Amino acid sequence: MTDNPSIDAFDIASPDDHARVRRMADGMLPTPEGDLRRLGIDEGAALDRRIAGKLAQSRRAIRESAWSGRVGIVFAMWGEQRRLRPRSSGNPTGEDALHVKLDQLAWVFEGTDIDWRLYPIDDGDPDDSA
After folding, report:
1. What is the CA radius of gyration of the chain?
2. Who contacts 96 (Cβ-Cβ below 8 Å, separation ≥6)?
3. Is the per-residue pLDDT at 100 higher than 70?
4. Angle formed by the axes of helices 97-109 and 47-64, to 10°?
5. Three-class SS of residue 22?
6. Measuring CA to CA, which residue among 24, 31, 34, 30 is closest to residue 4?
7. Which residues contact 100 (CB under 8 A, 6 or more apart)?
8. How far apart (Å, rounded) are the C-alpha atoms in residues 121 and 129?
9. DSSP character for 130?
10. Mean pLDDT of the chain
11. Residue 88 above 60 pLDDT?
12. Residue 66: which pLDDT band, with cuts at 50, 70 and 90?
């Protein structure tokens, strides 16, 4: 597998860590499919490498597919109110999760003939994620 630098800690709320994971995924695109699949399930691998491996595997599968059309991705909003906003002193668990997911999906579908949409759905969360 390609040698991609990893770190021991991955901060899910860090935009820098997400950008680094995407760079790692770019570097992993030439990696054999079986190695990417094993990396994605290897509990001993660093979390950033596992995420990058899954992103690379997804992008490769979509690019190798001859399919084109529309894709709708549903993002359930149950309990997401704190995760949706960026981290701050008033929101210490913030991940800016919706923007991260949009960025990852844009990267995965980039350069394809697939028209995609992300649908955040309010599924009746009592914490008012909507």
Report:
1. 16
2. 13, 15, 84, 85, 86, 87
3. yes
4. 40
5. helix
6. 24
7. 15, 18
8. 9
9. -
10. 83
11. yes
12. confident
Torsion of CA 36, 8, 102, 40, to 10 degrees: 20
pLDDT band (50, 70, 90) for residue 71: very high
Query: Which of the pair, 6 or 54, is modelled with greater confidence?
Result: 54
Which residues are paired to 70 by β-bridges?
A: 115
Tokens standing for residue 116: 């995609």
Q: How far apart are CA 128 and CA 75, in angstroms?
A: 15
Angle (CA) 46-50-56 rounded to 5° is 140
Quote the tokens at residue 25: 């995924």
pLDDT band at 3 (very low <50, low <70, confident <90, very high): very low
Alpha helices, H only, 1-130: 15-28, 33-41, 47-64, 81-84, 97-109
Classify the phi-psi angles of 101: left when phi > 0, otherwise alpha if psi is within -120 to 50, otherwise beta. Answer: alpha
- Residue 23 to residues 3, 12, 31: CA-CA distances in angstroms? 12, 16, 14
Whether the pLDDT of residue 1 is over 60: the answer is: no
